Amino acid sequence: MTSKKEQAAYTHGHHSSVVNDHARRTANDSAAFLIPHIKPNHKILDLGCGPGTITADLAALVPQGSVTGGDAVSSVLEQASSYAASRGLDNVSFQTVDGNDLPFPDDTFDVVYCHQLLQHVKDPVGIMREMRRVAKPGGGIVAVREADYAGFVFYPAPPEIRRWAELYQLVARANGGEPDAGRYLHVWARQAGFTPPDQITPSWDSWRYAGQRATQFSLSWHGRILQPGFMGTAVREGFSTEDEIRSLSEAWKKWGETEDCMIVIPHGELLCRKP
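C-alpha coordinates predicted for Methyltransferase domain-containing protein:
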Protein backbone atom coordinates (compact mmCIF):
# COMPACT_ATOMS: atom_id res chain seq x y z
CA MET A 1 0.00 0.00 0.00
CA THR A 2 1.42 3.34 -0.97
CA SER A 3 1.32 7.05 -0.39
CA LYS A 4 3.35 9.64 -2.20
CA LYS A 5 5.51 12.36 -0.72
CA GLU A 6 5.93 10.71 2.67
CA GLN A 7 8.03 7.78 1.43
CA ALA A 8 11.47 7.78 -0.08
CA ALA A 9 11.06 4.46 -1.87
CA TYR A 10 8.41 1.75 -1.70
CA THR A 11 10.37 -1.41 -0.90
CA HIS A 12 7.82 -3.75 -2.47
CA GLY A 13 7.10 -1.75 -5.63
CA HIS A 14 4.10 -2.23 -7.92
CA HIS A 15 5.22 -5.23 -9.93
CA SER A 16 2.44 -7.71 -10.67
CA SER A 17 3.96 -10.08 -8.10
CA VAL A 18 3.13 -7.50 -5.44
CA VAL A 19 -0.19 -6.08 -6.62
CA ASN A 20 -1.66 -9.50 -7.33
CA ASP A 21 -0.78 -10.65 -3.83
CA HIS A 22 -2.28 -7.51 -2.29
CA ALA A 23 -5.47 -8.12 -4.28
CA ARG A 24 -6.04 -11.31 -2.27
CA ARG A 25 -6.60 -9.28 0.90
CA THR A 26 -10.08 -8.83 2.33
CA ALA A 27 -11.69 -6.78 5.05
CA ASN A 28 -12.18 -9.98 7.04
CA ASP A 29 -8.47 -10.83 7.11
CA SER A 30 -7.15 -7.25 7.24
CA ALA A 31 -9.75 -5.18 9.13
CA ALA A 32 -11.54 -7.61 11.44
CA PHE A 33 -10.71 -5.40 14.43
CA LEU A 34 -12.53 -2.51 12.74
CA ILE A 35 -15.61 -4.21 11.27
CA PRO A 36 -17.69 -4.35 14.50
CA HIS A 37 -17.46 -0.56 14.77
CA ILE A 38 -18.68 0.21 11.24
CA LYS A 39 -22.26 1.43 10.80
CA PRO A 40 -24.29 1.18 7.56
CA ASN A 41 -24.28 4.96 7.03
CA HIS A 42 -20.60 5.58 7.74
CA LYS A 43 -18.38 7.63 5.48
CA ILE A 44 -14.98 5.89 5.26
CA LEU A 45 -11.54 6.77 3.92
CA ASP A 46 -9.24 3.85 3.03
CA LEU A 47 -5.80 5.42 2.80
CA GLY A 48 -3.19 3.57 0.76
CA CYS A 49 -5.93 1.40 -0.71
CA GLY A 50 -3.85 -0.30 -3.42
CA PRO A 51 -5.91 -2.59 -5.70
CA GLY A 52 -9.03 -1.88 -3.67
CA THR A 53 -10.22 -5.30 -2.54
CA ILE A 54 -10.44 -4.23 1.11
CA THR A 55 -11.98 -0.93 0.02
CA ALA A 56 -14.74 -2.75 -1.85
CA ASP A 57 -15.44 -4.98 1.14
CA LEU A 58 -15.78 -1.90 3.34
CA ALA A 59 -18.16 -0.31 0.81
CA ALA A 60 -20.38 -3.40 1.00
CA LEU A 61 -20.67 -2.82 4.76
CA VAL A 62 -21.98 0.76 4.38
CA PRO A 63 -24.92 0.57 1.92
CA GLN A 64 -26.23 3.94 3.14
CA GLY A 65 -22.74 5.42 3.38
CA SER A 66 -19.69 5.73 1.14
CA VAL A 67 -16.04 4.79 0.90
CA THR A 68 -13.20 6.76 -0.66
CA GLY A 69 -10.08 4.83 -1.59
CA GLY A 70 -6.92 6.93 -1.76
CA ASP A 71 -3.49 5.97 -3.07
CA ALA A 72 -0.51 7.76 -4.57
CA VAL A 73 -0.27 5.46 -7.60
CA SER A 74 -2.83 5.95 -10.37
CA SER A 75 -2.27 2.54 -11.97
CA VAL A 76 -3.46 0.64 -8.89
CA LEU A 77 -6.45 2.98 -8.61
CA GLU A 78 -7.52 2.01 -12.12
CA GLN A 79 -7.44 -1.63 -11.03
CA ALA A 80 -9.33 -0.77 -7.84
CA SER A 81 -12.05 1.08 -9.75
CA SER A 82 -12.50 -1.82 -12.15
CA TYR A 83 -12.75 -4.28 -9.28
CA ALA A 84 -15.40 -2.21 -7.47
CA ALA A 85 -17.40 -1.92 -10.70
CA SER A 86 -17.23 -5.70 -11.17
CA ARG A 87 -18.94 -6.07 -7.79
CA GLY A 88 -21.66 -3.57 -8.70
CA LEU A 89 -20.72 -1.11 -5.96
CA ASP A 90 -21.86 2.46 -6.56
CA ASN A 91 -20.90 3.94 -3.17
CA VAL A 92 -17.12 3.78 -3.61
CA SER A 93 -14.75 6.16 -5.39
CA PHE A 94 -10.99 6.37 -5.81
CA GLN A 95 -8.57 9.27 -6.07
CA THR A 96 -4.89 10.06 -5.96
CA VAL A 97 -3.84 11.42 -2.58
CA ASP A 98 -0.74 12.39 -0.64
CA GLY A 99 -0.98 11.10 2.91
CA ASN A 100 0.99 14.06 4.23
CA ASP A 101 -1.56 16.52 2.86
CA LEU A 102 -4.94 14.88 2.43
CA PRO A 103 -7.28 16.78 0.06
CA PHE A 104 -10.23 16.67 2.46
CA PRO A 105 -11.61 19.21 4.94
CA ASP A 106 -11.29 18.71 8.66
CA ASP A 107 -13.84 16.40 10.30
CA THR A 108 -14.97 14.66 7.08
CA PHE A 109 -14.99 10.89 7.75
CA ASP A 110 -16.55 8.61 10.35
CA VAL A 111 -13.72 6.12 9.81
CA VAL A 112 -10.18 6.67 8.48
CA TYR A 113 -8.36 3.39 7.90
CA CYS A 114 -4.94 2.35 6.63
CA HIS A 115 -3.32 -1.04 6.27
CA GLN A 116 0.36 -1.76 5.57
CA LEU A 117 1.07 1.92 4.83
CA LEU A 118 2.80 3.37 7.89
CA GLN A 119 5.67 0.87 7.69
CA HIS A 120 6.72 2.37 4.35
CA VAL A 121 6.71 6.08 5.19
CA LYS A 122 9.29 8.44 6.61
CA ASP A 123 6.83 10.24 8.88
CA PRO A 124 4.17 7.84 10.20
CA VAL A 125 3.23 10.29 12.94
CA GLY A 126 2.52 12.95 10.32
CA ILE A 127 0.29 10.54 8.41
CA MET A 128 -1.63 9.63 11.56
CA ARG A 129 -1.97 13.29 12.38
CA GLU A 130 -3.58 13.89 8.98
CA MET A 131 -5.83 10.87 9.47
CA ARG A 132 -6.91 12.33 12.80
CA ARG A 133 -7.56 15.72 11.23
CA VAL A 134 -10.02 14.40 8.65
CA ALA A 135 -11.83 12.11 11.13
CA LYS A 136 -15.03 13.46 12.64
CA PRO A 137 -14.93 14.66 16.25
CA GLY A 138 -17.03 13.03 18.91
CA GLY A 139 -15.86 9.49 18.33
CA GLY A 140 -14.59 9.38 14.76
CA ILE A 141 -12.34 6.37 14.22
CA VAL A 142 -8.74 6.20 13.05
CA ALA A 143 -7.84 2.53 12.49
CA VAL A 144 -4.38 1.30 11.52
CA ARG A 145 -2.89 -2.16 11.02
CA GLU A 146 0.77 -2.94 10.30
CA ALA A 147 2.95 -6.01 10.07
CA ASP A 148 5.92 -6.58 12.35
CA TYR A 149 8.64 -8.25 10.29
CA ALA A 150 10.90 -9.19 13.20
CA GLY A 151 8.09 -11.39 14.47
CA PHE A 152 7.67 -13.50 11.31
CA VAL A 153 7.60 -17.26 11.95
CA PHE A 154 8.61 -19.64 9.15
CA TYR A 155 8.43 -23.39 8.78
CA PRO A 156 10.78 -24.56 7.54
CA ALA A 157 13.29 -21.79 8.23
CA PRO A 158 16.31 -22.51 6.01
CA PRO A 159 19.34 -20.19 6.09
CA GLU A 160 18.28 -18.47 2.85
CA ILE A 161 14.91 -17.40 4.26
CA ARG A 162 16.56 -16.23 7.47
CA ARG A 163 18.99 -14.22 5.33
CA TRP A 164 16.05 -12.67 3.46
CA ALA A 165 14.53 -11.63 6.81
CA GLU A 166 17.83 -10.01 7.81
CA LEU A 167 18.12 -8.20 4.49
CA TYR A 168 14.53 -7.00 4.61
CA GLN A 169 15.20 -5.12 7.84
CA LEU A 170 18.20 -3.39 6.28
CA VAL A 171 16.54 -2.61 2.95
CA ALA A 172 13.25 -1.34 4.41
CA ARG A 173 15.05 1.07 6.73
CA ALA A 174 17.39 2.22 3.97
CA ASN A 175 14.28 3.02 1.92
CA GLY A 176 12.99 5.20 4.77
CA GLY A 177 10.53 2.82 6.40
CA GLU A 178 10.10 0.88 9.64
CA PRO A 179 9.65 -2.86 9.03
CA ASP A 180 8.58 -3.51 12.63
CA ALA A 181 5.85 -0.87 12.52
CA GLY A 182 3.30 -3.03 14.33
CA ARG A 183 5.00 -2.55 17.70
CA TYR A 184 5.19 1.25 17.37
CA LEU A 185 1.57 2.07 16.53
CA HIS A 186 0.55 3.05 20.06
CA VAL A 187 3.56 5.38 20.31
CA TRP A 188 2.85 7.02 16.96
CA ALA A 189 -0.82 7.47 17.84
CA ARG A 190 0.06 9.27 21.07
CA GLN A 191 2.51 11.49 19.22
CA ALA A 192 -0.21 12.23 16.64
CA GLY A 193 -2.48 13.63 19.35
CA PHE A 194 -4.49 10.70 20.71
CA THR A 195 -4.51 10.30 24.49
CA PRO A 196 -4.07 6.82 25.97
CA PRO A 197 -5.80 4.82 27.24
CA ASP A 198 -9.27 6.25 26.60
CA GLN A 199 -8.66 7.18 22.95
CA ILE A 200 -6.39 4.27 21.94
CA THR A 201 -7.35 0.58 21.83
CA PRO A 202 -4.45 -1.69 20.78
CA SER A 203 -4.67 -5.30 19.64
CA TRP A 204 -2.61 -7.94 17.84
CA ASP A 205 -3.59 -10.41 15.15
CA SER A 206 -1.80 -12.48 12.54
CA TRP A 207 -2.02 -14.04 9.13
CA ARG A 208 -1.15 -17.72 8.95
CA TYR A 209 -0.41 -18.92 5.43
CA ALA A 210 -0.13 -22.61 4.63
CA GLY A 211 -0.84 -24.83 1.63
CA GLN A 212 -1.74 -22.95 -1.53
CA ARG A 213 -1.69 -19.55 0.17
CA ALA A 214 1.87 -20.11 1.41
CA THR A 215 2.88 -21.09 -2.12
CA GLN A 216 1.28 -17.94 -3.51
CA PHE A 217 3.15 -15.83 -0.97
CA SER A 218 6.43 -17.54 -1.80
CA LEU A 219 5.95 -16.90 -5.51
CA SER A 220 5.15 -13.28 -4.75
CA TRP A 221 8.50 -12.87 -2.99
CA HIS A 222 10.21 -14.93 -5.68
CA GLY A 223 9.32 -12.01 -7.96
CA ARG A 224 9.30 -8.94 -5.75
CA ILE A 225 12.77 -9.50 -4.28
CA LEU A 226 14.17 -8.87 -7.79
CA GLN A 227 12.51 -5.46 -8.14
CA PRO A 228 14.40 -2.17 -7.72
CA GLY A 229 12.89 -1.37 -4.32
CA PHE A 230 14.54 -4.44 -2.84
CA MET A 231 17.40 -5.64 -5.04
CA GLY A 232 18.34 -2.15 -6.20
CA THR A 233 18.57 -0.83 -2.66
CA ALA A 234 20.33 -3.93 -1.31
CA VAL A 235 23.05 -3.76 -3.95
CA ARG A 236 23.42 0.03 -3.92
CA GLU A 237 23.79 0.12 -0.13
CA GLY A 238 26.26 -2.76 -0.10
CA PHE A 239 23.98 -5.10 1.84
CA SER A 240 24.07 -7.82 -0.80
CA THR A 241 24.89 -8.66 -4.40
CA GLU A 242 22.70 -9.37 -7.41
CA ASP A 243 23.87 -12.98 -7.37
CA GLU A 244 22.84 -13.43 -3.76
CA ILE A 245 19.47 -11.76 -4.31
CA ARG A 246 18.77 -14.04 -7.28
CA SER A 247 19.67 -17.06 -5.18
CA LEU A 248 17.29 -15.87 -2.45
CA SER A 249 14.57 -15.47 -5.07
CA GLU A 250 15.00 -19.12 -6.00
CA ALA A 251 15.05 -20.05 -2.31
CA TRP A 252 11.64 -18.44 -1.87
CA LYS A 253 10.26 -20.50 -4.73
CA LYS A 254 11.76 -23.68 -3.30
CA TRP A 255 10.38 -22.87 0.15
CA GLY A 256 6.87 -22.63 -1.28
CA GLU A 257 7.24 -26.07 -2.82
CA THR A 258 8.14 -27.62 0.53
CA GLU A 259 5.54 -29.91 2.06
CA ASP A 260 3.97 -28.34 5.16
CA CYS A 261 5.54 -24.90 4.56
CA MET A 262 3.90 -22.28 6.73
CA ILE A 263 4.39 -18.63 7.67
CA VAL A 264 2.85 -16.54 10.45
CA ILE A 265 2.83 -12.76 9.98
CA PRO A 266 2.01 -10.81 13.17
CA HIS A 267 0.23 -7.47 12.98
CA GLY A 268 -0.17 -4.65 15.42
CA GLU A 269 -3.60 -3.02 15.28
CA LEU A 270 -4.89 0.22 16.73
CA LEU A 271 -8.36 1.69 16.95
CA CYS A 272 -8.31 5.35 17.98
CA ARG A 273 -11.23 7.65 18.77
CA LYS A 274 -11.15 11.37 18.05
CA PRO A 275 -12.72 13.30 20.92
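The mean pLDDT is 96.
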